[in-house]
Amino acid sequence: MKFSSSLIVLCVGFGLASGKLTPNYTSPLGVEVYNPDQLFNVSGPWSLMTKAGNLLYISGMRGFHPSNTTLAPVGLPRIEQAFSNMQQLAKLGGANLTDCIRLTVFVTDMYRWRPLVNTVTQELWKDVAPNYPARTIVEVQRLNDDDIVEVEGTFYLGNQ
Fold first, then answer.
1. What is the C-alpha to C-alpha distance for residues 157 and 85, in angstroms, rounded to an integer?
2. Residue 94 contacts residue 157 (beta carbons within 8 Å)
3. Which of 47, 95, 115, 152: CA 20 to 30 A from 55?
4. pLDDT (tens digit per residue) in 39-64
5. Which GO terms describe its cellular component (predicted)?
C-alpha cells in the first residue's frame, strides 16, 4: 500500500502542499465546516469535515477514487481507498494519521470485511503499533449505494 506517496501526489496536483484550507462556513461559535472540492462532492446534506477547537471530525468516507468518483473494486482496494480518503482529508485539515484519536468503521459483513479493515489499520499505523487509535467497528445492514465499508475519524490538532 502506498498511501503516503499517493497523498503527496494528490496534494501537489491540487496545489495544496503549501496552501491553507479555507472553511466553507464558520459558525458563530467558531465551528468550521469544510467541503474541499479537490476531493469529491458530497452526495447529500452533509459536509466532509468539521473543525471545533483543536478537534477535526471527518465524515464517513467510502472507497471512491477522488479523480472520477468511481468506487474502487470490492474488497481490500475499496477499504484501502476509504481509509486513503480519510487520510487525505486529515492532511488537508492539518493532521496526520498519528493524530487520530478515534475511528468508527461501518461494514456490511463483519466476518468478511473486519479482517481486511484490520489489515489496512495495521499497515497505516505500523510505525506506532500496537498503539492504534481507539476504534469501534459496527456491522450495519446497508450502506449508501450498497457499499461495503465507511470509515470516519476524529483527529487531535494540538494547540493550534
1. 18
2. yes
3. 115
4. 777 778 999 999 999 999 999 999 99
5. cytosol
108 close to 143: Cβ distance less than 8 angstroms? yes
In angstroms, the CA 160 to CA 158 distance is 6
* Whole-angstrom distance, CA of residue 40 vs CA of residue 118: 26
Q: Count the domains in the chain.
A: 1
Amino acid at 33: V
Give yes or no for a contact between 160 and 56, defined as CB atoms under 8 angstroms apart.
no
Q: What is the mean pLDDT of residues 126-152?
A: 96
Domain that holds residue 121: 3-156
**16-32 pLDDT tens trace:** 443 578 999 999 999 99
What are the residues whose beta carbons fall under 8 Å from the beta carbon of 65, sequence distance 6 or more? 71, 72, 81
Quote the CA–CA distance of 83 and 97 in Å, as a whole number.
10
Integer Cα distance of 155 and 95 in angstroms: 7
CATH number at residue 16: 3.30.1330.40
Q: DSSP of 12-36, one letter per residue? A: HHTT-SSPPP--SEE-TT--EEE--
